[in-house]
From TrEMBL:
This is Cytochrome b5 heme-binding domain-containing protein. It comes from Penicilliopsis zonata CBS 506.65. Residues 1-26 are annotated as: Disordered. Residues 27-122 form the Cytochrome b5 heme-binding domain. GO terms for cellular component: endoplasmic reticulum; membrane.
Length: 127
């Protein structure tokens, strides 16, 4: 059965989203950190497993949003463990248990259905 047929309906956005073709532009960790929603001249970006998503249109990632802790980072470990702690917003996830890796993959799918992929974290080894 194709993957799309097996995906839970919960991953589908309530309102259809028209996404641009994914880009694979290299984005440095330094550049990513500047895209944390505090500078209105820059997009708000979140990376998952080294893939960078533009979440600018969602105020939840902005300076006063509940998910601002993820903005400008690759919070793969935090997403996998359902943590909102800043110290858990790290890109290393390869040593997680299978259950957490599954949760992280579900988050990746969730983001990929809603936000444009604008690049890859330069040097990321965990994509």
């Amino acid at each position: 059965m194709p993957d799309k047929e097996r995906e839970p309906k919960s991953f589908a956005p309530k309102v259809p989203v028209q996404l641009n073709p994914p880009k694979d532009d290299p984005i440095t960790v330094e550049e990513l950190s500047k895209c944390d929603g505090t500078d209105p001249s820059r997009p708000t970006l979140v990376a998952i497993k080294g893939i960078v998503f533009d979440v600018s249109k969602n105020p939840a990632y902005g300076p006063s949003g509940q998910y601002h802790v993820f903005a400008g980072k690759d919070p793969s470990r935090a997403l996998a463990s359902s943590s909102l702690k800043a110290e858990d917003c790290r890109s290393d996830w390869y040593d997680l248990e299978e259950k957490e890796k599954t949760v992280l993959s579900e988050w990746y799918t969730f983001f990929s259905k809603r936000y444009n992929i604008v690049g890859k974290v330069q040097g990321a080894t965990n994509c």
